[in-house]
Amino acid sequence: MFDYLAPFYDEFLSVSGRYTTKPVLENASFREDSLVLDVGGGTGHLGEKISGSIDLDYIVLDESEKMLKRAARKDLYCIIKSSSSYLPFRDEVFDYVVCVDALHHFEDKVKSLEEMMRVLKRDGVFYLLDFLPKKLVTRVICFFERLSGESTYFCSPSEIDKYIIGSSEYRALNSFQFLLKANKN
Ligand SMILES: C[S@@+](CC[C@H](N)C(=O)[O-])C[C@H]1O[C@@H](n2cnc3c(N)ncnc32)[C@H](O)[C@@H]1O
User: Residue 146 belongs to what H/E stretch?
Assistant: First the structure.
């Protein structure tokens, strides 16, 4: 689906980004000189904003070549084409792992969460933004995404928490979205 959406995705985000990019920028914090991995990072919209305001190395990983082609036009450290189920990195290399509006698209959510935890350093921070299951907005999104062939499934923060190494907390951003923050120990 995202290969088709790629040419319009940044324009789409200029509206929908208030529910994805904006809350992350407002609620997450990043250290200078850190290494960040954005899994399902798409066109690098969030990465461009973060690395434009803090001096850090931001990697966008995505399985859609066309989304990554858009990301390649931005000032990011690097882009990587891969599935979230097999992150091509050694253990514990990233200071931050970010996953925004993407987990519900991943075919293997458990493997993806395990992989994101594996590549995160001890004391590293994981940020995940997604939609709360069972809410009306979420059901509508689910309906349309499944119609277009996506294997959409929304996990609750407590389902995600089972795969977190360390402690996690989440805050509801509104009636249908949450931002989870985990500190790996
Ligand atoms: C809704 S977009 C979100 C993009 C970006 N995080 C943002 O907030 O703008 C979901 C992204 O997840 C990517 N994606 C879906 N399944 C994936 C997988 N298994 N591995 C890597 N990326 C995946 C899609 O290609 C798409 O770019």
Answer: helix 136-147
